[in-house]
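Journal club side-thread
Mid-discussion, someone asked how the predicted structure for our own chain would compare to the paper's figures. Pasting it here so we can look after the session.
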Amino acid sequence: MADSFTMSFTLRSLYKGVLYSLIVCGCAIAPSPAEAGIYKMFSCQPPGVNVASPTIGPWRVYSVNSPNTQDLSNCGAGPGGAMAIAFNGNEMPSFGHAGWELPAAALNANVGIVRVRSWARTETESPPQCGFCFQVLFGENLGPAAAVYPRSSDTAEGYTSPAADPPAGAHRLGLQCGDGGAGAPCRVINRPNLVIAGLETDLFESAPPDGAITGGSLASPGTKAGPASLSYTAGDAQSGIQRVEVLIGDAVVRTQDFSRNLALPLAQQTGECTYTGLAACPTSLSRDIAVDTTAVPNGQHAVRLRIIDAAGNRKDVAGPLLAIANSSPGTPNGAPASRSAKLTARFTTTGKQSRRLSYRARAPIRGRLVNERTQPIAGATIAVLVRTAQAGARSEQVDTVTTAGDGSFSYRLGSGPSRRVTFSYTAFAGDPKISAARSLKTLVRAQLTATASSRSPRVGARFAIRGRLRLLARSGVQVTIQVRSDGRWRPLGNVKTTARGDYVWRYRFVRFARGRTITFRARVDSPIYPFAAGNSRLLRVQVR
């Protein structure tokens, strides 16, 4: 505890006269034709991204005039894993440079590099005339810096390259020794010397995917009704297959989505795309897909298979002409009712689908319901469901709204904590599935108090921080006590609330803290508490 309290988190430095630079090299490739798209590749574990199997991917260590470069990367080692290099003997030759590169040999003719974003940490200190900085240099000419970036930690964005147009065919990211002094090497104290917690690479590719309809009841012409099926193959050697859709006429009646939401915890993620290599998604698929023909009106319709890759390039595969003949549906919900309806909803004041609110705010919402031909659906009843933003909560219907003649509707969400509100439309009575839905999200910041037992505590004496949750008091909510050090908030301890929402955190200062002014705050960010993260007021104490 004493070590964590002293907050000796400063970075180690290089000896005087050493200059390290962050360097980038880009080599142009020919621009791509129409249907081009951008997709992402993640290396290691960038902040806010939960990769199932972190890996360096196609990035490789390189060195120029630095033969003693050593790769210490451990991306798959769990939390804290990173791309890392060190220099044997703790030195890099003068004017040498080393780091990671995405070489042209790793790409193919249809893939280019648009932008690279890194979360870097380096244990460097530049000479006085430069101050604390990285220098970003482009190309192999290590001349004047194109831009200067502050030294950063692995929890902040360290470097973002400019967008390449046309996309680049290679990219380098590393450290350069400018001159250790009269041609001497740059000497360092710590290992590793450059750590990159994660890379986010925007890749560009324009080649459309390919595929074929191979079987199923929708693969042959004729009269169809009720449940049906379609078999297909799909392939894309560049970014991979992200989504496959079946269309009957102009209506998308079934989608297989292989994408993965990396912002969610791993346990909540689904999908076969990994976004950890040049092929972000599966490069070949052979699947069956179930289809409900009642999603389209009776009549003549053509079947299509739509294949979409991770970069958004698509290909439509033509199927047969069908006669859809389903029995009459139940009572229609609105006119004209449609199982292929499209529903939109946004907060009225911001036009967005998420909004930060105060606890007592009542947010107005507007939306619209139209059919597949964008015609308004009037007189339709739309269910309003709300789910509180906490672990284990379920959606509950709290209200209904009715569409006007132009398909529009309005609703005012009542006050409360962070929630997800969903507007749900079912086209015909008795339909087993909803026809359209749209969800909005509110973020309400948690509020808590904090009071120090003394503004001038003594070393060895008891010290306490007390407080309570100001909204929806409940037990078991974790409160983190943080301390300010080196310009960052760092956790010092945790405590859980009582049934009344109160908490008490106790501490004894060690001798090393005598004479220091310490700044504390309490923070709550709990999955069982339905609020966005919130902080208390700042507490400053002088240790005696």
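Post-session note: Residues 1-35, 125-155 have pLDDT under 50 and may be disordered.
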